Input
Amino acid sequence: MTVFLLRVGYMKKFLGLLQEYSIPLIVGIVAALIWANLSPETYEHFIHFPIYRDITIHFLVEDVFMVFFFATAMVVIL
Output
């Protein structure tokens, strides 16, 4: 029972941390939208630039980070 309560407390702290830092996320989204519309060639080059072998920023955002986003959303819903 105490292990479950510790996990619930940890998740509440984690979700609070995500909510606390939502402002930088929104600023980053707006900056990316402005960049993509002002200079699409440089934006495309940046997001498709390989970081390590075949791993790009596009892959990290679209595949990896979206898993964490939907996992967090599922925890909030449940």
User: Anything to note?
Assistant: Helices lie at 2-20, 22-38, 40-47, 57-77. The first strand starts at residue 50 and ends at 52. Strands lie at 50-52, 55-56. The first helix runs from residue 2 to 20.
